[in-house]
Specification:
174 residues; mainly alpha
Length: 174
C-alpha cells in the first residue's frame, strides 16, 4: 500500500474523503489489483505471454469485482472517478522505482498506455488525451539520487535495479 498511499497524497481530496481513501484505495483488494495489473503490463509490454496474461486478467477481474462490490453506493461515483488514475499512477511509480535503470521505457507513450488501460478496464472508456501530464511526477518517480539522465537516455534493457544480468526480468509468479 506504500505506493498507493504516495499516489493518493497527490490527489486534491476533500478532508472528508480521507477515510474512504484509506478504506478502499489502500485496501488489500486494491493492492492485489495493483500487483496483478503490474505483472500483466510487464508481460503485455515487455514479455508477451498470452496464457499468463489471460490468467492474470481473470485474477484482476475477480479482484476488481470483489473490491467494488464492497464499496457503498454513496461512495462508488467518487471511487470510479478517481481509481483509474490512481491505479495508472501507481503502476507508473512501481515500474519507475523497480526499474530505475530503464526509465527511458516509461515515456509519454507508456503513461498514455497505462491511463487508457486502467480507464478502459474500470470505466469502459479512455480518458482525455495527455491526462498523465497532470500527475505529480515528483511523487511517482524515484528520488533524485536514483533518477538520472543515464536511465532515461540509455538503451539499457528493462531490468530491476539490483540485477546485474543483462536480460529482461522474469516474474517470480511463473
Amino acid at each position: 500500500p506504500h505506493i498507493l498511499n504516495k499516489v493518493t497524497q497527490g490527489f486534491d481530496f476533500d478532508a472528508s474523503w480521507f477515510k474512504i481513501r484509506k478504506k478502499y484505495f489502500l485496501s488489500q483488494g486494491s493492492v492485489a489489483l495493483l500487483q496483478d495489473t503490474f505483472w500483466w503490463v510487464l508481460l503485455e509490454r515487455f514479455h508477451p505471454n498470452q496464457r499468463e496474461q489471460d490468467r492474470l486478467y481473470n485474477r484482476i477481474a475477480d479482484s476488481y469485482v470483489s473490491l467494488f462490490l464492497n464499496i457503498p453506493e454513496k461512495h462508488k461515483d467518487f471511487i470510479l472517478k478517481n481509481y483509474p488514475s490512481a491505479l495508472a499512477q501507481s503502476l507508473y511509480s512501481t515500474f519507475c522505482n523497480v526499474y530505475t535503470n530503464s526509465l527511458k521505457h516509461f515515456d509519454g507513450d507508456f503513461k498514455t498506455f497505462l491511463c487508457n488501460l486502467t480507464s478502459e478496464w474500470i470505466c469502459g472508456s479512455t480518458p482525455p488525451p495527455l491526462t498523465w501530464t497532470k500527475w505529480p511526477i515528483n511523487l511517482l518517480e524515484p528520488s533524485s539520487s536514483h533518477k538520472d539522465d543515464e536511465g532515461r537516455k540509455s538503451g539499457l534493457k528493462l531490468q530491476p535495479q539490483e540485477s546485474t544480468v543483462d536480460e529482461k526480468p522474469i516474474s517470480p509468479m511463473f
